[in-house]
Amino acid sequence: MSLPEGDLETKKTEKYDRQLRLWGVEGQKRIESAHIALLNGGPVGTETLKNLVLPGIGEFTVIDSKKVTNRDLGNNFFVESESIGKSRAEEVTRLLYELNDMVKDKHAIDQDPVALIDSNADFVKDYTVIIATELPPTSVVKLSIACAKHNKILIVVRINGLIGTIRVQAGEHTIVESKPSFPSEDLRLNTPFEAISQIASRLNYDNLDDMHFAHIPYPIILLKEIETWKAAHNKLPEEDNEKDKFRAQIQARKRKVDNENFSEASQKAHYAWIPYKIPSTILDILNDHKAQNVTKDSTDFWLLAHAVNLFVHNEGKGKLPLMGTIPDMTSDTHSFIELQYAYRDKALQDADIVKHHLHKTLTSLGLPTDRISDVDIRNFCKHSLFLQVIRYSTVAEEDEDPSKVNRDSIEMNLVDWLVGDDAPGEGCWWLAMRAADRFHRAHGRYPGENTDAFEQDFESLRKHADDVLTQLGFQTNQLQDAHLKELCRFGNSQIHTIAAILGGICAQEVIKLVTHQWVPLDNTFVFNGIHSTSVSLKI
User: Fold this and answer.
1) How many CB atoms lie within 10 A of CB 119?
2) What is the end-to-end Cα distance of the chain in Å, rounded?
3) Rounded Cα–Cα distance for residues 305 and 311 (Å)
4) In sequence order, what DSSP letters do the residues of 81-131 get, joined into one string?
5) Which residues does 79 contact at the CB level (< 8 Å), separation at least 6?
6) List of E strands, 170-309
7) For labelling, which of 230, 251, 308, 532 has a CA lying 20 to 30 Å from the CA of 74?
8) What pTM does this model have?
């Protein structure tokens, strides 16, 4: 029996409490509205889906024509002995769904993904994300073209023995909440707005007792001290010795050695003299042709970027909308809340101006003014300092035109400099896997696959590797025989431990892409299970 809507939401909140703290209600809604298609239900595919079913992906479909065999029992946790001889798509779908019955729907399609791609690659239009595993390179290229045509996210995951790769293709991906590990603080102390200037001007050190003096927030201390400095020097601190004197001026204000707020102000003194500057990456977005020339077909991201750009060039006077948050600091509750409200209110004022520009733009384009909610407008303004846009190259471009491959990214990783200048890096494995794809095109199988004499495949693989190296402008000796012999020995085996690692990483990238939070992989990940090392490459 289904739960009433209110009870269902309560159950979801309880079940997903921890992850809601990570990506919020809006992020969870996007996850629950996504439909994932998995091509082939092998070990890496099921490990990926496991990590998406658990956080509540909306819907998933497994497309696979294979029957479960004894080999599956050795590397796939989502089949069981009773599954032998049955449809692998149906079995892994059934067992994956048992992990979370709050997933809205599931589907198993007993069809060969290669045949489906050949007959109707446009099937991708029905899904949010397509995860391709255990596919031949020719099918991956066709799939790449179809996903680019329908603007769908494609993630290709490959395992060959102890080596694994992930390739992301996501068209143009825009991120509002990039959530940097060390976000910049947006305090505007060099050019303070009126509300915080008034707080600073009202405060008189001499009128405060020792307790209140020890809890003045450091931004207010800096505003007062920089005004004192400018009155004495007619300029901001510029040279290193001047900056040291300014810090000493702050320290000299202490009444007691343990006045931590003044120590904080001294440590953060640079906020008082560093001029405000919009980062070049954000300027690139605001000056992008999609932000400058919006149309009725523009996405919400570009419409908001256009409105923010109008704000910057008008009311903002060269500044982005205020973030509106302040960091933790030594302060009493009253002073902290007063400062917090000042920043929050100014941020809301800026967001309202951006909203005004947005509504004018929407009206001029014949679009409804309620298309973008107030919550989304404020959220965009709050994170405007951390916006990101990634424009992915396609797998098809990389495959068909070697000149479009980012050679520099590979070359930087042909040597593991941390180990030594002659130690091969993970870029070598990317080249070896590309050579293995060439081998597959020529022989219809991977090196060492379905043969007891895997050594015999080495000579052919070496020739394909030399062709790959030459086309990319490398010397043939930059890829050692050892890498190629290992691939021949692996024989395209699918090892569960490697699948579990790659599946976890792949699912993480799917969540980033679906929620439009954090910065996803751009665009290739190589995992070396021999040494437990990895590298990200922009191919």
Assistant:
1) 11
2) 50
3) 10
4) GGGTTSBHHHHHHHHHHTT-TTS-EEEEE-S-HHHHHHHHGGGGGG-SEEE
5) 68, 72, 73, 88, 91, 92, 95
6) 172-175
7) 532
8) 0.91
